[in-house]
Write a structure and sequence with these properties.
Number of strands: 2
Shape: globular
Distance between the termini: 23 Å
Radius of gyration: 17 Å
Strand order of the largest sheet: 1-2
Helix content: over 70%
Largest sheet: 2 strands, antiparallel
Oligomer: single chain
Strand content: under 5%
């Protein structure tokens, strides 16, 4: 049995790029990443499944999705992110090496983005391999349920676990993009 081809430019990746461009989304994603250690790629997967497919993930589905790419995220994506952050003060100064360090930081940033794309390809493969039927809901309800499950898994409580309060711009952008993908047939 041959493995299915890896889809680097998957509908999930295209959805994520479109959502991330939304006003205020970048800041909200970084906020929950810093506060709760949320993998933004997993956040995008949860949003995609809800907003585009209208499917509700269980807590164990979220755990399984995390398992599918968690080691890559921890060992590749986070490592590259840390290197990029470490280089930032070295490249922003006036010293003789600032330009060279900033050029290196730009390359590391590109590698970090590519590592995130690989992570999303892993997640897309996991998503396409799921055979069991998920509960279906209206996309807004499914999106909120999926993001809530992820926030709770990562330790958010109370209002911090309410996607509409913790991530209002993200949720709005995901629903806009998801609705467009459903209407144009560019989803799965």
């Amino acid at each position: 049995m041959t493995a299915p081809p890896v889809e680097m430019n998957s509908p999930l990746w295209r959805f994520s790029l479109a959502v991330y461009r939304g006003a205020g989304v970048h800041e909200e994603c970084l906020d929950v990443q810093e506060r709760f250690g949320i993998d933004v790629n997993l956040l995008m997967l949860c949003a995609y499944v809800g907003a585009v497919e209208g499917a509700v993930l269980s807590a164990s589905d979220v755990a399984d999705a995390l398992e599918a790419s968690g080691a890559w995220h921890a060992n590749a994506v986070r490592t590259l992110r840390q290197v990029r952050r470490t280089l930032k003060p070295w490249g922003s100064g006036e010293g003789p090496f600032a330009n060279m360090v900033e050029a290196l930081r730009t390359k590391v940033k590109g590698a970090e983005l590519e590592a995130e794309q690989i992570e999303q390809a892993m997640m897309w493969g996991w998503l396409r391999a799921q055979a069991g039927p998920w509960r279906r809901r209206e996309p807004r309800q499914a999106l909120i349920a999926n993001v809530f499950a992820l926030l709770v898994r990562c330790g958010a409580t109370g209002a911090q676990a309410d996607p509409q309060q913790a991530l209002p711009q993200f949720c709005a952008a995901a629903l806009r993009v998801g609705t467009r993908e459903q209407a144009t047939g560019t989803g799965p």
